[in-house]
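In response to the reviewer comment on reproducibility (Comment 2.3), we provide here a single inverse folding case reported in full, input and output, so that an independent group could reproduce the run without further information from us. The structure tokens appear first.
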């Protein structure tokens, strides 16, 4: 039956000039009205490096603008985070070489640098969230994230046992989040079990779930002093191959099942496809880590006058939100928060 009989119907849509996407882009008010993604200081987690001593503000040459603090110099930074509204500070230690061992046991010392830092921060600024990285690489004499066998292979279950102790030590000191970045199998479940059975039922686990064996971590390894110990060896036997996508989804699924409260994709910018997929697939609180190498690239290009620092910084952070991130671990957190405040 011909239903168009008797009516004037054109099957050719006269798109031009009725559809003009530039109408909404024309004015600032109309651009603001249709904006799909926004950045706020609530989105940031600020990673900082701590070392022993007092009065320390030691430069890290491969990360311009980032320093190693001692506990006393970190306190004003924490205060600034509180004032700017940055919700969480992430702690990474630079451990003295004399304390590094093949088994990284210093990671479990209740009076070690990180537990002391957590206690000092929670005492002064209880409203600031504190996240601790769970991994042995800052503490091992070989720079790997776990315990090695004679062939230099990282042993899974032996490492997980130490990681559970490390996470418990951090929780005891008052850490709000423990964030396993080691990529051992089964560590989220084991850590969750250790926390639950020791009455730390509110300690959140942010799992570095999709953590790739990336060359973008170079400057971080300078910062924590693991680069020279690691030498030419790599972390391919535990971190994910950058070529893989479905494997990342399986890792995230496992971590959620084992009790992760939040999941992470790392590095950030080169892995936005993974971030989008993880968010769409699992609908979990999902975080991106804009890692040290990404930070260094933007800083270096800006210092050369090749990129506009502030614009590129904000665009990169917004891109994480657009790709599905609920928040970003970024060395730009303070700079970006200040910029947001001044706008
Ligand atoms: C430790 C750890 C690393 C980073 C965070 N936690 C380095 C690595 O796995 O070698 C990298 C962070 C960065 O590059 O900013 N396991």
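Designed residues, in position order:
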């Amino acid at each position: 039956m011909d239903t168009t009989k008797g009516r004037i119907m054109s099957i050719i849509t006269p798109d031009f000039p009725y559809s003009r996407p530039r109408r909404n882009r024309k004015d600032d008010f109309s651009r603001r009205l249709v904006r799909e993604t926004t950045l706020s200081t609530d989105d940031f987690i600020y990673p900082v490096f701590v070392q022993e001593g007092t009065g320390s503000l030691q430069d890290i040459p491969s990360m311009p603008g980032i320093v190693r603090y001692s506990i006393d110099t970190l306190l004003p930074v924490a205060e600034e985070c509180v004032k700017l509204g940055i919700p969480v500070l992430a702690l990474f230690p630079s451990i003295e070489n004399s304390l590094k061992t093949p088994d990284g046991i210093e990671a479990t010392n209740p009076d070690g640098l990180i537990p002391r830092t957590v206690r000092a921060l929670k005492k002064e600024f209880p409203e600031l969230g504190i996240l601790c990285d769970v991994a042995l690489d800052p503490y091992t004499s070989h720079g790997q994230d776990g315990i090695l066998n004679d062939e230099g292979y990282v042993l899974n279950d032996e490492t997980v046992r130490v990681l559970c102790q490390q996470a418990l030590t951090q929780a005891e000191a008052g850490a709000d989040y423990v964030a396993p970045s080691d990529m051992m199998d089964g560590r989220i479940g084991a850590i969750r079990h250790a926390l639950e059975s020791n009455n730390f039922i509110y300690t959140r686990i942010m799992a570095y779930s999709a953590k790739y064996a990336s060359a973008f971590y170079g400057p971080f390894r300078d910062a924590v002093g693991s680069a020279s110990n690691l030498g030419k060896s790599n972390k391919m036997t535990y971190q994910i191959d950058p070529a893989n996508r479905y494997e990342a989804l399986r890792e995230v699924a496992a971590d959620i099942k084992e009790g992760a409260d939040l999941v992470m994709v790392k590095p950030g910018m080169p892995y936005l496809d993974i971030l989008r997929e993880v968010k769409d697939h699992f609908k979990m609180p999902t975080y991106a880590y804009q890692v040290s190498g990404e930070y260094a690239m933007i800083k270096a290009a800006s210092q050369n006058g090749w990129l506009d620092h502030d614009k590129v910084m904000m665009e990169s952070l917004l891109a994480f939100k657009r790709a599905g991130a609920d928040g970003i671990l970024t060395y730009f957190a303070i700079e970006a928060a200040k910029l947001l405040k001044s706008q």
